[in-house]
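Hello Y.,

Per our agreement to keep a running log of every chain we model this quarter, I'm adding this entry. I've kept the format consistent with earlier entries: sequence first, then predicted structure.
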Amino acid sequence: MIRRTLGASLLATLLVATPALAEETNIGHPIEAGGLHEGRLDMVVYYVPVEGDLLEVTATFAPKGGGDPQRVVMGLADRDSVAFSLPGYQDSLYAFSRSGEEVTVATETDMRQRVDALRRRP
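Predicted structure for the entry above:
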């Protein structure tokens, strides 16, 4: 029983940590914009270089059904990555990563369904 629970927990952790991405955009130059439109939010993202080696990445999320947009601003150093969900939209995971001058943004919109399915397995 402990082995089965541990195995299911490990599998769930691996799937959440490495999600199958539904949509992706790559931005290779400052002020070049990219967008994602999967799920209940539309997102536009761009970056500008700031002091040192940081790129300041700005992502604006707008609900498709109307409502106030939400903006996230973060600094990414080379080889940084971060993933998060927005309040009220926990079914979508947004992942940002940087490699050199390229910023990649991806989303998965069925994350909650996949985790729930894993929990139901015997």
